[in-house]
């Protein structure tokens, strides 16, 4: 049984078609990413699947149950971390989490355990309004997970976190599916999606453009590799004369060689004793994302 079955979802706001025929499935135990530029329809799609917004057309089943009409039986089985967190006023972080836990009949000790898992033990007595943006984000994630849901929705969970906190949270998130839990993630960080997600769907202008594993999407792009040779080792003329080099440019890091045959090229550089400081960058999920959605600024 699929954890999520979305079929031909559509919704409009006036003349704007925010979601336009979105269909996909998420398997039980899968870590699934929904990626797209600002205004692509990611959050609206999630809200329809979560039962927070009724689609104009199409259907959704979550954990084998229809979402509409509003299905209260699903609420204890899902956890939702929204893009904009809403907390009870004037409660401390511990009180906040214990309150969420009590709504699901979860003991206070389990709530306190989640404070430790998201690194907020030292802020347990601080009021929510005194937490930093990143701390409030981590508390929001703990509130979504405190009742041990089968299916978790995370809407840009690391958006306000510093790099160290992001990496620490990745360790937590990567273990969520180990017990069979299903996770659906939206993020603007392509490295995050590439590391965490089993599959990703790229959405733009309300439509799914591609859906596959990150590795398969990168392979399908057939992007050239970029081999950077340290400064002073190669002139542009020497670089362009090497067999297998499609193009060569200068950068602050050295000479950048573009090639579709990186392995033979590295062999030739080794034969010329020019491997010191060499870096190889192949195609990434970010390259796929930009290729599909374009590079123009979005509001």
TrEMBL record:
Localisation per UniProt entry: Cell membrane
ABC transporter domain span: 4-230
Chief location category: membrane
Membrane topology term: Peripheral membrane protein
InterPro entries: AAA+_ATPase, ABC_transporter-like_ATP-bd, ABC_transporter-like_CS, ABC_transporter_ATP-binding, P-loop_NTPase
An annotated Gene Ontology molecular function: ATP binding
The keyword Cytoplasm appears for this protein: no
Keywords, alphabetical: Antibiotic resistance, ATP-binding, Nucleotide-binding, Transport
Family to which the UniProt record says this protein belongs: Belongs to the ABC transporter superfamily.
Protein name, per record: ABC transporter ATP-binding protein
Originating species: Nocardioides plantarum
């Amino acid at each position: 049984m699929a954890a999520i079955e979305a079929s031909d979802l559509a919704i409009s706001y006036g003349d704007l078609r925010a979601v336009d025929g979105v269909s996909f499935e998420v398997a039980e135990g899968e870590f699934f990413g929904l990626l797209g530029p600002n205004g692509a329809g990611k959050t609206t799609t999630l809200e329809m699947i979560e039962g927070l917004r009724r689609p104009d057309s199409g259907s959704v089943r979550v954990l084998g149950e229809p979402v509409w009409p509003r299905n209260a039986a699903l609420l204890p089985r899902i956890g939702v971390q929204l893009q904009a967190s809403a907390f009870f006023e004037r409660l401390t972080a511990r009180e906040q989490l214990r309150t969420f836990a009590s709504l699901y009949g979860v003991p206070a000790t389990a709530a306190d355990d989640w404070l430790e898992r998201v690194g907020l033990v030292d802020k347990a007595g601080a009021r929510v309004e005194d937490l930093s943006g990143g701390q409030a984000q981590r508390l929001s994630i703990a509130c979504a997970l405190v009742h041990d849901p089968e299916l978790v929705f995370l809407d840009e969970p690391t958006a306000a976190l510093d790099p160290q906190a992001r990496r620490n949270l990745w360790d937590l998130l990567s273990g969520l599916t180990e017990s069979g839990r299903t996770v659906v993630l939206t993020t603007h960080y392509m490295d995050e999606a590439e590391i965490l997600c089993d599959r990703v769907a790229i959405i733009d202008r309300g439509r799914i453009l591609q859906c596959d594993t990150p590795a398969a999407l990168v392979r399908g792009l057939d992007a050239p590799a970029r081999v950077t040779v340290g400064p002073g080792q190669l002139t542009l003329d020497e670089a362009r004369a090497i067999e297998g080099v499609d193009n060569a440019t200068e950068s602050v890091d050295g000479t950048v060689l573009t090639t579709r045959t990186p392995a033979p090229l590295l062999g030739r550089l080794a034969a010329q004793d020019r491997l010191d400081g060499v870096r190889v960058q192949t195609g990434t999920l970010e390259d796929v994302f930009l290729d599909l959605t374009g590079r123009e600024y979005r509001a």
